[in-house]
Amino acid sequence: MNNIERLIAKDLLSIKAVFFSPDKPFTWASGIKSPVYCDNRLTLTSPKVRLDVENSIAETIKREYPDVEVLMGTSTAGIAHAAIAGHILNLPMGYVRSGAKDHGRGNQIEGRLEKGQKVVVVEDLISTGGSCIEVVNVLREYGANVLGIVSIFTYGMKKGLERLKEANVRNVSLTNFDVIAEVAAEENYIKIEDITRLKKFRDNPSDESWIKK
Q: Are the C-beta atoms of 164 and 171 separated by less than 8 Å?
């Protein structure tokens, strides 16, 4: 657990961008019961947290992907983070739509991007990895050299990790599910004994045996 992981974990918990409720789980659209609610868009409404997040994204990009030439945000949650980090790093940015426009030039990639340029994708969170891999594939098909992803938060779910590996996509997250759970227990957002239950969910979201009956 490094300093950035702890800092961002504390920040996300403080504004309830990541909110744990192991005794009263949320229900995802898929029907899965989840002990965690995550909305990293809330980071944009808190100046202090926003500054921490964007500086950490910029620092991580410089450290992990020093050869980057362009930042590309995922639509829509990654756009603002790519723009602010791009400003800090003095790098061009753009974003990738979920589909090509049905008007104008029919773009799916917005912003200037040359074939062969080295790109880092900026994402807010990763669960099963599907959406960010789609963005990477669009960029690769265009001819970009995608170095990897920087995300604010990752669940670290097995399915997501396997998908990223199969797609040969590297992701570096500012913080992750395990770190946030540990910090949440330290700061009394949850009980220490809840960590085991939370990790059980993380390991297999469809298994509801972690829920107290």
A: yes
